[in-house]
Design goal:
This protein is mainly alpha-helical. The protein has four helices and two strands. The protein has a two-stranded antiparallel sheet. Strand 1 and strand 2 form a beta hairpin. The chain starts with a helix and ends in a 6-residue tail after the last strand.
């Protein structure tokens, strides 16, 4: 279907793409680590998302490096349709795995934004809040439980 020269060009370009994706993914990890704070990390660990996120990054980086190495090896030797098919599959799989990471980064950014917004609201409210019931009177308890000083 494709000429040998066209396949060689595709493998050369694909190898460069895989190498670029490796760099982008590692940069994304560094950025995520730098914007994460203790509260966000605790929340991620409690929700069991921390391991999932790290595994996705590790898996995609390993896949990207493997694709780059295989592409470099194929470029060094003459190759047939089987090697071309293997490389094509790895390259497209790497790209789709990278898209999954983009989704995880967006989700993590959304969690961070929610956490920051809740923290700012909590800071604005402070401890001097009185809870007023629907009758307009100050409440001393909620559902029969007394309101402690730190909860007011």
């Amino acid at each position: 279907m494709f000429t040998q020269r066209g396949k060689a060009t595709f493998i050369e370009s694909g190898t460069g793409t895989a190498q670029t994706l490796t760099t982008v993914i590692l940069t994304a990890v560094i950025i995520l680590v730098s914007i994460s704070d203790d509260d966000l990390l605790v929340e991620l660990i409690e929700d069991r998302n921390y391991e999932s996120i790290l595994f996705s990054f590790e898996y995609t980086v390993a896949l990207s490096i493997t694709t780059s190495v295989i592409g470099s090896i194929i470029q060094s030797y003459s190759f047939g349709n089987f090697a071309y098919a293997i490389f094509s599959f790895l390259l497209f799989y790497t790209v789709f795995a990278s898209l999954s990471i983009v989704s995880k980064i967006i989700t993590l950014g959304h969690k961070k934004a929610q956490q920051t917004a809740v923290g700012e609201i909590d800071d604005d409210i402070g401890d001097d809040v009185e809870i007023i019931g629907p009758d307009g009177k100050k409440r001393e308890s909620i559902d029969g439980e007394p309101i402690e000083e730190g909860e007011k």
